[in-house]
Amino acid sequence: MSAVVEVPVKENDLVSYNPANSKEVGRVKVSSEKDVQEAVERSRKAFKIWQKTSFAERKRIVMRAREVILAEMDEIARTISDEMGKPVAEALSAEITPVLDLMQYFAKNTEKMLRPEKRGIGLLGLMGRSSKIIYKPVGVVGIIPAWNFPFSIPLGEVVMAIMAGNTVVLKPSELTPLTGKKIGEIFEIANLPKDVLQIVQGAGETGAALVDSGVNKIMFTGSVATGKKIAENAAKHLTSVVLELGGKDPMVVFADANLEKASSAAVWGGFTNSGQACSSVERLYVEEKVADKFTKMVVEKTKKLRQGFGNDANTDVGSMSSERQTKIVEDHIQAFKDSGAEILTGGKRNEELGEIFFEPTVIKNATNKMRPMQEETFGPTLPIATFKTEDEAIELANDTDFGLTASVWTSDLSRGKRIAEKILAGTVNVNEVLYTHGIGQTPWGGFKDSGYGRTHGREGLMELVVPQHIHVNRFLFTPDVWWFGYSQNAIDTFKEMARTFASGSLVKTVGLLPQMWKRIKELNKKDE
Ligand code: NDP
After folding, report:
1. Whose CA is nearest to atom 37 of ligand 1?
2. Which CATH architecture has domain 249-438?
3. Mean of the per-residue pLDDT values for the chain?
4. Atom of ligand 1 nearest to the CA of 446
5. Any residues with CB less than 8 A from the CB of 23 and at least 6 apart, and which?
6. pTM score, whole prediction
């Protein structure tokens, strides 16, 4: 049985342990507050040059980084698995594959998405003016990710940030420093100019130093509690923040769903990454008339899962990533039991494999009143509750402080889509579960306590740029009618303008012209 390792900081070294066997995976140097500050200063200098590079040059580097990943795929997957305890298969399917897709997508499409845009300005357009919006990089972006998808989440954000012309300082989670280091090495091999991407290492204090360093944007992924601290600290510097926080995602299964498929989805959605995914299924609501049958299917499929070490190709469910997280799972299981729910399978640490392995657990008779149906578990638990009507299902799904993702299962697709629109979550899937963070083309982010701002998609790219409005007046000699030199004539003109602008009618603008002309003459006379 493996011993449990916590707080892996040794003197000035941050030691990364494999949680499944407590063996050291490697170590990195901890960055001091001064190191973080200096990294941000270097980043600011690098930004001056990087922001001027062409999209073609940025694309070339990102596409090269993609080649590096493809060439080192096995080693990268192994490092992720070793640091986190997840199966190598999941490092490949849920991290490496989707982020490679994201890389090629943003490499090829960022220029198009950030193309300057002419904006119609209504009646002012008829008065010789035009407006164009251009998108400028924000500057230095600080990225602070969680440990659960230590490769795909930060790397996706790095790619989007640098494609938009920003420079980046990334602080990986203290549990996954080597995966973070690897991201830096990939771009070094891809010839990304020095200091465009820097990695600083350490625990929460290093993250806090990064927030305090005056970067121009923080992209944070983690818990609600840390997210609130970050928002508070960032506010002191007026730094804007994207917060990708926790979830308590519901899966709603109607009687007409394909129960065979839905039960497999529930098992994968609840237990992949040992349930340590922000969009894991954390609450399962099943229509009462099929609940017994469905629960039986879920339990049978759960019992067939093979729990084991991440480097075993046949492992379905790996270890937990930390003792801290495992204790939360235990606490929630106890709370379920204490409030009358029934554990159908699992419910305890896996004694054969080691205490950091928690058995996939299915729980019956859960209700929303139970504490662990409201708090994020972030572990391998599938609590099942039942409902009778569509309205009740929607109410139960929405009865939460979170709103990251949700899923609705039914053979009636129009009903599925109708219900999806009534659930308050950043992404709602119909007959699909959990995986949409893997679609780099679509926005990712939460409602309510699941955070604000978006990553991925055009919406995510927009978080990494500032729109600049360029406004031009082609009439070189005429004064603006609203300038000084107010008079009764000015007041009459403004009233007429107010009526015309309120109508938005071009025909009315023509009627306004004599009044405007009178006002311009008045102003010109004043200037003589
Ligand atoms: P934490 O909030 O504990 O940590 C997240 C990151 O913040 C880590 O890098 C951490 O460093 C760092 N950090 C901790 N304290 C501070 C601080 N005061 N200032 C700046 N940075 C700090 O979350 P976890 O790593 O435990 O991740 C799990 C959480 O992440 C879950 O709630 C999960 O739902 C959420 N999550 C959300 C996702 C989303 O897209 N919405 C995706 C993935 C996870 P260190 O680890 O070194 O302490």
Report:
1. 245
2. 3-Layer(aba) Sandwich (3.40)
3. 96
4. 41
5. 17
6. 0.96
